[in-house]
Design a protein that fits this description.
Shape: globular
CATH topology of the largest domain: Rossmann fold
Order of helices and strands: EEEHEEHEHHHEHEHEEHHEEHEEHH
Number of helices: 12
Largest sheet: 6 strands, mixed
Structural class: alpha/beta
Low-confidence stretches: 238-263
Number of domains: 2
Strand content: 25-35%
Helix content: 25-40%
Strand order of the largest sheet: 6-7-8-3-9-10
């Protein structure tokens, strides 16, 4: 068994009176993908930030490549061969891909042509194609995540930390990213992948550490075989107690409940979208005579590859974009042309594609 590249021993981190991590120990080995599993608030991001030097531990120790490791900050961690893809993007929107990759990495005269060649090499090696001259603001969420990844890989790190990188990606993009993790590990590096999605654990994890409430509650050297136990450790309960929706989210077979079927209920329309047409500022039609009815108690999925009107549909429903034609009703209340404040007051909640850029919450 390979010696640990990074060993964490009894790490504790407090923020005021709140203990985010308590006595967490684990080791990360070259050539493996080590997944950190846990619900929101379990301490996963805090652990990553300790490894990357964003925060300093209150107690405990870290050993990296056989010696003490206590980075003074992210720049120190990068200099020692540790790179991290953060949960939230850290890109400059009005700069190009190549300039974002070079930012903070090269001083003096910037060699954009060499950087573009390096990006082409990474694209060939890992399947991460990018237009070096594209402006970040013009890229999709998935493409921006790709930029964050190549920013790290271009440094050729020994340890690659990814904090929930798949949260904003489409299924095909998730599969591609997991393939990148496997290729990076196959090159002799260590990969830390933070997630709470069991499908990702099954596909790529060599080992798993489960955090709950800031503590290590389970580990596994055979995640596929131990998946049920990992779920129980993560949620502190029994998998069989999960209802159908929760089991589906976790990637498990839904529980079948034997008993009387509920009596059928008359359908009551909750949302009515009638003949919705949306044209953008350039006059391009993004939605064309779109009609949809959603009954109370229903979950309706709207599927399509990126750029086929999903973003415009949610923007209209949120009051962030005006429809060219058509009407929207919530029950008996017409919402056509209403402001976001009025739509929220009527009882509509929107989680946008990029919640950090366009989402807000008021008390």
């Amino acid at each position: 068994m390979a010696e640990p590249l990074l060993a964490l021993s009894q790490l504790t981190k407090r923020f005021g009176s709140f203990t985010a991590l308590s006595d967490v120990s684990l080791d990360l080995r070259p050539g493996e993908v080590h997944c950190i599993l846990g619900e929101n608030g379990a301490g996963k991001s805090t652990l990553c930030n300790l490894i990357f030097g964003v925060h300093q531990p209150d107690s405990g120790a870290m050993q990296y490549r056989g010696g003490p490791y206590r980075p003074s900050g992210p720049a120190d961690a990068l200099a020692q061969g540790i790179a991290m893809v953060h949960q939230h993007f850290s890109l400059v929107g009005d700069m190009s891909v190549v300039d974002n990759v070079l930012l903070g990495r090269q001083r003096g005269i910037l060699d954009r042509r060499q950087c573009a060649r390096d990006l082409e090499k990474l694209a060939a090696e890992y399947g991460l194609p990018l237009d070096p001259l594209a402006k970040i603001d013009d890229l999709s969420v998935g493409e921006r995540q790709r930029v964050e990844i190549v920013k790290c890989l271009i440094r050729d790190p020994h340890l690659f930390v990814l904090d929930e990188p798949t949260a904003v990606l489409l299924p095909d993009e998730i599969a591609a990213l997991l393939d990148v993790c496997r290729r990076v590990a196959a090159g002799g590096r260590a990969v830390v992948l933070v997630t709470h999605k069991l499908a990702e654990i099954k596909k790529v994890a060599d080992r798993v550490t489960v955090l709950r409430g800031g503590r290590t509650v389970a580990t596994s050297n055979d995640p596929t075989a131990d998946i049920d136990a990992l779920v129980r450790a993560m949620i502190q309960g029994n998998v069989e107690a999960l209802d159908t929706s929760a089991a589906s989210i976790l990637g498990l077979e839904p529980v079948t409940h034997v008993g009387h079927e509920p009596a059928s209920k008359a359908k009551v329309e909750a949302l009515q979208i009638d003949g919705l047409t949306v044209k953008d500022r350039q006059g391009v039609t993004r939605l064309d005579n779109f009609t949809l009815m959603v009954d109370r108690g229903e979950i309706v999925g709207v599927a399509g590859v990126e750029g086929n009107g999903q973003s415009e549909l949610t923007a209209v429903l949120a009051g962030m974009m005006e429809a060219t034609e058509g009407r929207v009703h919530l029950g008996a209340t017409e919402l056509t042309g209403r402001s976001p404040k009025e739509i929220t007051a009527a009882g509509v909640g929107i989680v946008p594609e990029d919640r950090h850029a366009v989402g807000s919450c008021s008390a």
